[in-house]
Amino acid sequence: MRKTKLKTMLLGLTGVLLLAGCGNEGEAESNGQGDGTTNVSEAVNYTITGVEPGAGLTQLTKDTLKAYENLEGWELQESSTVGMLAALDDAIRNEEPIIVSGWSPHWKFAAYDLKFLEDPKGTFGGIENIQTIARKGLEEDMPNAFKIIDTFNWEVEDIESVVLASQDIPMEEAAANWLDENRDKVAEWVEGTEKVDGKSIEIVLTPWDTERATAQVVAQVLEEQGFNVTLTPVDPVIMFEAIATGNGDASLAPWLPSTHATFYEEYKDDIVDLGPSLTGGRNGFVVPAYMDIDSIEDLEPKR
Questions:
Q1: Mean per-residue pLDDT, 79-98
Q2: Where does the record locate the signal sequence feature (predicted)?
Q3: What's the pLDDT score for residue 130?
Q4: CA dist., res. 121 & res. 89, Å (int)
């Protein structure tokens, strides 16, 4: 089964140490689901299971812990995306409570029954878009590639289906399968363009699965049109810098208006903003649907 394979893969990558500190020790009698014996905050040991220290989501999580008075004494356990997913999978398998820093689109929402906690203070920034940016001069240098990249758009369900499939097969194959099943959308993206003969283009992306899925889909469409495509995964700040300096041609990875706002403000005058390729993204605290909690404000300060 997919989840069995996924569990083995995640645990093999992260090891036992990344699963420590998730607040599940000694809770066999209560899993924090509102049974009255242990509240959710105590059950998760006043800890948010997070991702990489340098991720935009990590800073949003830190801002949230400071903004909510009821989160006084709470801690963010920084690890990695793989570590967070391993801890989430482990908790769900044992039907235990856990709160993670999460985002959508992401395959975990297709694999598990999850929900975001309401964020009344809006510290996570509300609805996010995945934006497309390009270097200045790309439209003049490569008008056909520019038009395809500018026209490209898809839905949350599309990207999550590709990323979920990539847990069992290579991302390149998952993207190719999706393209084969969605030729009507591809036709819209390439309409009005002409094929080229080996023109090189570099797409810069962040190294997360959703951005890898987007880049693979766009890269394969461009390759069908005769382009030689290079995909370069880098950290977010390097991504913006690369486009602003012309060292990369385009990126379909920025999350705006909140996640990458700092980098966008720094480089916005030196890039071409083509608008969102996907709308409906979201950041926040994510919990399994079986947990009896709906809002960040339902959590309690550490005693």
A1: 95
A2: 1-28
A3: 95
A4: 29
- Where exactly are the structural domains of the chain? 2-125+283-298, 127-281
The superfamily in CATH containing domain 127-281 is Dipeptide-binding Protein; Domain 3 (3.10.105.10)
CA distance linking residue 180 with residue 186, whole number of Å: 9
Q: What are the DSSP calls for the chain, one per residue?
A: -HHHHHHHHHHHHHTGGGGTTSS-TT-TT--SSSSSSS-HHHHTTTEEE---TTSHHHHHHHHHHHH-GGGTT-EEE---HHHHHHHHHHHHHTT----EEEEES-THHHHS-EEEPB-TT-TT-SEEEEEEEEETTHHHH-HHHHHHHHH----HHHHHHHHHHTTTS-HHHHHHHHHHH-HHHHHHHHTT----SS-EEEEEE-SSHHHHHHHHHHHHHHHHTT-EEEEEE--HHHHHHHHHHTSSSEES--EETTTTHHHHHHHGGGEEEEEEEEEEEEEEEEEETTSS--BGGGS----
- 132 beta partners: 275
Q: Which tokens sit at 139?
A: 């439209």
Domain 2-125+283-298 CATH superfamily: Glycine betaine-binding periplasmic protein; domain 2 (3.40.190.100)
The pLDDT tens digits for 157-197 are 999 999 999 999 999 999 999 999 999 999 999 999 999 99
Tokens 């960040």 identify what position? 296
CA–CA distances in Å: residue 96 to residues 12, 69, 81, 176, 241: 21, 25, 20, 37, 42
186-238 pLDDT per residue, tens: 999 999 999 999 999 999 999 889 999 999 999 999 999 999 999 999 999 99
Which pTM was predicted?
Answer: 0.72
Does the pLDDT of residue 1 top 80, yes or no? no
